[in-house]
Design a protein that fits this description.
The chain has 119 residues and is α+β, with helices and mostly antiparallel strands. It has one domain (3-103): Endonuclease, Chain A. It is 40% helix and 21% strand. It contains 4 helices and 4 strands. The chain has helices spanning 3-12, 55-66, 77-82, 84-103; strands spanning 23-28, 31-37, 42-47, 71-76. It has a 4-stranded mixed beta sheet, with helices on both faces. The longest helix has 20 residues, at 84-103. The protein is globular.
């Protein structure tokens, strides 16, 4: 883990953020996300310099995981190291939004009634 990941993990572990359980380095399919809350299907990534030249790869990876219903939060490692309280506040806001989304899932589209055979 990078320093930024260690700092964030120290704030996420043991249900410290709104009582939610986070795993670190969680495998999902063929990928591994930095932090993951299964109850909320919420992934958190901390991006550093190694991601500077992997933007297309990161976008594709995130898109595939979003198809599984996973929501992503991304933070730059500098941001975590210099202003972790703002990072935690944004995570808490996202958790509250996710809780609301899960309480009120989108309604399925109505299907038109099937008409009988007209022969």
């Amino acid at each position: 883990m990078t320093l930024a990941e260690v700092l964030l993990w120290n704030r996420l572990k043991q249900r410290q953020v709104l009582g939610y359980d986070f795993d670190r380095q969680r495998p999902i399919g063929k990928y591994i996300v930095d932090f993951y809350c299964k109850a909320l299907r919420l992934a958190i990534e901390v991006d550093g310099r190694s991601h500077d030249f992997k933007e297309n790869q990161d976008v594709r990876r995130q898109g595939e995981l979003e198809l599984l219903g996973i929501v992503f939060l991304r933070f730059w490692d500098f941001e975590v190291k210099t202003d972790i309280q703002s990072v935690i506040s944004r995570i808490e806001t996202s958790i509250r939004e996710r809780e609301e989304d899960m309480k009120n899932p989108p309604r399925p589209m109505a299907t038109p009634p099937v008409e009988g055979n007209r022969n």
